[in-house]
Specification:
Oligomer: heterodimer
Shape of chain A: globular
CATH class of the largest domain in chain B: Mainly Alpha
Largest sheet of chain B: 5 strands, mixed
Largest sheet of chain A: none
Distance between the termini of chain B: 33 Å
Mean pLDDT of chain A: 90
Radius of gyration of chain B: 22 Å
Helix content of chain A: 55-70%
Radius of gyration of chain A: 19 Å
Chain lengths: 305, 499
């Protein structure tokens, strides 16, 4: 089955549209666990619309970095999303050998701009947040690359498009290894997207924040760009996890879109459940969690050989 | 204790001030040190103007085991040798004396402003509150983090300076005074019509506690006893205030570690408790309930039934909400071992309330110096030994359970009779001391009257005055990301400190 560029483009545009819905669903799940009705599902869209209508506010101590940071970060994320096959059997917009490395370094590039924009403000809080973000993302990197190495190794292909689209049974792994792989990726997903137990997206306590504290000095359209980027990044990681899940399931043909949506929904709800039922880790325990993710990924890699 | 050196009295009593011997300064200081060494605790140390040239220094030492209060007095002119090096718990009292009266404690190790009052004659720049030297670490790896006085979230203003090495806090210094209103000074020549309202707002979340301490003083000075039924309603109000705040604190502690269920449920249950106070007096914070001489509102049978059924409901709700907290290992791992205060530290710096009971010190005004209804109904004291966030949270939970039982017991056995006695004129040249165990700990009010039976000096010591330094100590060697959690486990008052 050969599906051309239009399908890829439609999926890409759908992703851009649908990404902010994910935080909306997570918030709803958390509200239900707390015995509340919760905000509207579309609240993230309302927030973006509200922020975009506002003006810009910049501190006198900042340079152009704080203006360009959010935009470059969003550009990096938007480009990264073109490299990822978004739906089983549909190739991504762009594809080349080794594109998975480009994808994750585009994410790193986006993070670099966020960190630079944070340090540009000269605030002690933002410096601390940047420091934490840099450390934890560096520790998450080994796990990510071991996961990718496992995929490459099993499928024998060198691009994401080939791994997920062209190989008939991309992983061809029995259940256990995939479970381990998914667990490792899930931990990285939580960490990279500033979710509990690593970070708390709802806290107002600057001293405990990681991601939120880096964007404290951004307002209006800048903040909208950042928040949109946050949901896009979460979407990207969820799609990757979803692809691995679906790759081990039998192809159900016309039911595939439903299965795809169901998998995304389950991942979204599970993030909400994790956030509702456990406390954050102590900051000094976060590296242990990330090392554990790397260890899990390594186990999957070794077992799959 | 040599009896010639001091006057012994009880909580809630007044005495003619000339009964208190005026000691020479060295004997006064020896006396204070000796009594603290013998297990006493400095509940208040303050100066009052005597003549244009000299001031009277008064120390109130609580002897918790004996249930006695010792009062020592001396005369001081321009300066006196600081007691702080030998007795650290007076450090803030001495800074306060210097700031209020200009009497200098010589060799005080850290003589800095406390509240930055706009004293006439002292030139200070506009908005200069908080402008002073802070302790600083130097070095390549050291960085300073300044938080506040304007915070995210709806909290009071205070300035925190952290000296950090990476995520590790070596030192924390806290600077307050942004909400100084001059409540003590306003009372001179009083009581005024506004005084009662000022007491209710001394620390807004401790309306009942501070107003009760004030009422006890006014009753002691005028020789009136509040009727038994009024005493019981006061006890009920004090415990409802404790319940609402402790439950709110447990919810906030859960919220600080990102544990949502307990955070949201406890927030709602706190509202239920506040509403119980509201059905008694129309104010969720208990404003307007207490009057010198009794209480303004009586309880009828229907109201008692309502309160009992609401208390039962709240008991069930809070038990299941808090059980989630203790059953969650991720929460326990955040609470345990965080922000430890040892028993020795707690005693040395003179901490009070649930924070000191969490460090293994048996101290509770309701038990040690009972007044009113607490002389008849006992509330068992909750003491734990670890001194960490977990202990401070657990002490609150134990107190919640015991207060709930106490309230239900009290409502079932409410004394009959009047609820208000008319107040008489205040006795002249008397001093009264009143201690109340507010939900944060010991509230100490000292009232002195002049020849005309007017208040000549009114001293308020909020529990936060004793405990802020404990928070600074708890942070040493901790991760800076744990500060909000430690802070919430103390949950101290800014306006109660600032007065």
């Amino acid at each position: 089955m050969k599906i051309g560029i239009p399908a890829s483009l439609i999926l890409y545009l759908f992703s851009l549209m649908a990404a902010p819905l994910v935080p909306g669903i997570i918030n709803r799940v958390k509200a239900r666990f707390g015995g509340r009705r919760g905000q509207p599902l579309l609240q993230p869209y309302y927030d973006l619309a509200r922020l975009i209508r506002k003006g810009f506010v910049y501190s006198r101590t900042t340079t152009a970095l704080i203006y360009w940071g959010p935009l470059l970060q969003l550009a990096a994320l938007g480009t990264a999303l073109t490299l990822l096959p978004l739906f089983p059997g549909v190739p991504p917009l762009l594809s080349m050998p080794g594109d998975y490395i480009l994808l994750f370094y585009l994410l790193a590039l986006g993070r670099l701009f966020t960190i630079l924009a944070a340090m540009d403000t000269g605030s002690a809080f933002e410096g601390m947040g940047a420091n934490r973000e840099a450390l934890f993302s560096a520790l998450a990197e080994p796990a990510l690359f071991i996961i990718l190495a496992t995929l490459v190794h099993r499928s024998g292909f060198l691009s994401l498009s080939q791994i997920f689209v062209e190989s008939s049974a991309p992983l061809a792994l029995p259940g256990a290894e995939v479970m381990i792989l998914m667990a490792a990726l899930y931990l990285i997903l939580l960490s990279e997207n500033a979710r509990i137990p690593v970070d708390d997206p709802n806290t107002h306590l600057e001293l405990t924040m990681i991601h939120e504290v880096m964007v404290l000095d951004h307002a209006g359209p800048d903040l909208a760009v950042i928040q949109y980027g946050v949901s896009l990044k979460l979407w990207l990681f969820m799609i990757l996890l979803c692809q691995i899940v679906l790759s081990v399931l039998p192809n159900l043909g016309v039911l595939m879109p439903l299965l795809w949506l169901a998998a995304l929904l389950i991942i979204t709800i599970s993030i909400g459940i994790v956030e509702s039922t456990m406390a954050r880790l102590q900051m000094r325990r976060v590296p242990q969690l990330l090392v554990a993710a790397s260890a899990l990924a390594l186990v999957a890699y070794i077992v799959s050989r | 204790m040599k009896s010639s050196d001091h006057l012994l009295t009880h909580n809630g009593f007044a005495f003619p001030f000339n009964k208190c011997p005026i000691l020479p300064l060295p004997r006064f200081q020896e006396g204070v040190l000796q009594q603290v060494h013998d297990g006493g605790r400095v509940s208040a140390l303050f100066a009052m103007p005597q003549s244009t040239a000299s001031h009277l220094l008064v120390a109130v030492i609580s002897h918790d085991l004996e249930g006695l209060l010792a009062v020592l007095a001396t005369e001081a002119a321009q300066h006196f040798p600081s007691l702080t090096p030998a007795c650290p718990q007076v450090h803030l009292f001495e800074r306060e004396i210097f700031e209020q009266m200009g009497i200098k404690p010589r060799n005080h190790p850290w003589l800095k402003p406390v509240r930055f009052p706009q004293t006439p004659g002292v030139k200070r720049k506009k908005n200069a509150v908080g402008v002073m030297d802070f302790y600083r670490l130097e070095g390549e790896q050291i960085h300073e983090v300044a938080v506040g006085p304007v915070h995210a979230g709806v909290i009071e203003p205070g300035h925190f300076r952290f000296q950090c090495q990476g995520e590790l806090v070596h030192h924390l210094e806290i600077s307050l005074g942004y909400q100084h209103r001059g409540i003590e000074e306003h009372l001179s020549g009083g009581p005024w019509p506004a005084t009662l309202y000022q007491m209710e707002a001394a620390a807004g979340d401790t309306s009942i506690g501070h107003t009760l301490a004030y009422c006890q003083n006014m009753e002691a000075l005028s020789g009136v006893r509040a009727p038994a039924r009024a005493q019981a309603i006061r006890g009920l109000a004090l415990e409802l205030e404790r319940l609402a705040n402790h439950i709110g604190d447990l919810g906030a502690l859960a919220g600080d570690v990102g544990f949502l269920p307990t955070a949201t449920y406890c927030g709602a249950i706190r509202g239920d408790l506040l509403n119980m106070t509201a059905v008694v007096c129309g104010s969720r914070l208990g404003r307007g309930l207490l009057l010198p001489g009794g209480v303004a509102f009586d309880l009828d049978d229907r109201l008692i039934k309502t309160l009992l059924s609401r208390l039962k409901k709240a008991q069930q709700d809070v038990t299941s909400a808090v059980a989630l907290l203790w059953d969650s290992s991720s929460v326990l791992s955040r609470f345990e071992g965080t922000g430890r205060i040892t028993q020795a530290q707690a005693e040395e710096i003179g901490m009070v309330g649930p924070a000191v009971r969490a460090s293994g010190v048996e101290q509770d005004v309701r038990h040690d110096h009972p007044t009113g209804i607490y002389q008849l109904f006992q509330v068992p004291m909750a003491v734990l030994t670890q001194g960490d966030v977990h202990s401070r949270a657990m002490v609150r939970w134990l107190e919640i359970q015991r207060s709930l039982a106490f309230c239900q017991d009290l409502l079932a056995h409410l004394p009959e009779g009047e609820v208000l006695m008319p107040l008489k004129n205040l006795a002249s040249w008397h001093m009264a001391i009143s201690l109340v165990e507010g939900w944060r700990g010991e509230i100490c009010h000292v009232a002195c009257s002049d020849a005309k039976g007017k208040v000549s000096r009114y001293k308020i010591v909020d529990p936060s005055f004793h405990n802020w330094f404990g928070l600074a100590l708890a942070l040493r060697g901790q991760a800076i990301s744990d500060f909000p959690l430690c802070n919430k486990s103390f949950n101290l008052s800014y306006c109660g400190f600032d007065l």
